[in-house]
Design goal:
By secondary structure, this protein is mainly α. About 75% of the residues lie in helices and about 0% in strands. Helix 1 packs parallel to helix 4, helix 4 packs antiparallel against helix 7 and helix 5 crosses helix 6.
């Protein structure tokens, strides 16, 4: 989210030469199917010795969720009035201080919305977790549930219970931040 906030603000507010190309590239990268990049990503992780390690999942997850976070944050920063930045600049604030002290607090619904959507995506991600984590003690919850098998049958009751337990953090997170999520998703809908 930290990278998404800085990148989204830069793309929304700063005068960049190839802003459209950057946003288009982010959209293009997010549309790639995971299977098409699985081989090169696995090879890179193997060469770095990151298979069956936490950084072996962190790097692909950040890479895959970054476009979503940047798009959400850029759209929120575009909706904020430019006059606030002008006033901060007159008061002596630079871009960084304006972002941290003024823009991020105003874009808090967008930050919460983006953070929750990115968390849900990473929490439910299955393919790279299955590909990168072959040792049982490093497997994520969705992979562990999928590979949970009995000797002769599938233990449907245990799989259902594990699936229910896996959804509890998401449900609690959404219930806890429900008002902020709704405010974040509806911000900018009505002016």
């Amino acid at each position: 989210m930290l990278i998404s906030i800085f990148t989204g603000y830069s793309l929304a507010r700063l005068r960049l030469k190839y802003k459209g190309l950057i946003m288009g590239s982010l959209l293009l990268v997010s549309m790639f199917p995971q299977i098409s990049i699985a081989g090169p990503v696995w090879r890179i992780m193997q060469d770095m010795g990151w298979l069956n390690s936490y950084q072996g999942l962190i790097v692909p997850y950040v890479t895959l969720t970054l476009p979503l976070g940047v798009w959400i944050m850029a759209s929120f920063f575009k909706e904020l009035p430019e006059e606030l930045e002008d006033a901060a600049r007159i008061d002596g604030c630079g871009h960084f201080r304006t972002l941290v002290n003024i823009m991020v607090p105003l874009a808090a619904p967008g930050v919460f919305t983006a953070a929750i959507l990115v968390f849900i995506y990473a929490w439910n991600e299955f393919f790279f977790a299955l590909l990168m984590m072959t040792q049982q003690n490093f497997q994520t919850l969705p992979v562990g549930i999928a590979l949970f098998q009995g000797q002769y049958t599938l233990p449907w009751g245990e799989i259902a219970a594990a699936s229910t337990v896996a959804t509890v953090p998401l449900v609690l997170l959404v219930l806890l931040f429900q008002k902020r999520i709704v405010r974040g998703l509806s911000a900018g809908a009505v002016k």
